[in-house]
Amino acid sequence: MKSALVSAATAAVILGGSASAHTIFQEMYVNGADQGHINGIRVPDYDGPITDVTSNDLICNGGINPYHQPISMDIISVPAGASYTAEWHHTLDGANPSDPADPIDPSHKGPVLTYMAKVDNATQTDVTGLQWFKIWEDGFTASDQTWGVDRLIANKGKVTFTIPSCIEPGQYLLRHEIIALHAAESYPGAQFYMECAQLQITGGGSASPATVSFPGAYSGSDPGITINIYQTLSSYTIPGPAVFSC
Question: What domains can you pick out in the chain, each with its CATH number?
């Protein structure tokens, strides 16, 4: 009976919530300074998820979510060690307090993660084969059963983290991601939302973090990707590698 109730709850979320729950990372702040709406971010016209962890669309979105035209050619200067804020909203119009799904529908619970990859040119169109390292994550807090997405919503779509102070200077793509787990009881069910920001890192050091590839870093059988969240959880395993620290 409990299983039937869980399945019914999941179906209700899928049918009632997912259509209005999509979201886009569309604004960044460096040490608190707003860099301008969609400047330096590869945003799509459509705000839907990727569900196939083997797809190249998992890298920087695109594909089934066509890129907004024209794609920003801005490369945002960010000092190593800076405070970086990413801001999400339901549509490219930005914040809408009257929209119950802005910045994302509250049913879409899950972790929020950030990766970086060093590139020759942050505006290059080909993003396949890049090597990514994770710099930040916000997963699950068992004591109050809350998720990174809950904290993102409470902060009106904003999440803040620190760019590692020891990474090499140069151009990077920053891949910022939400994994929504409301329909993740079986694969494919988890919904991946991500965009890539184009950065010029200044200062820094000479660290060479261990890296992973997209696709490849995630498997559909990962316990953080295929999971029933409609229960009291004692823990949650965030997908991907450990967070790099200097």
Answer: 24-214 (2.70.50.70)
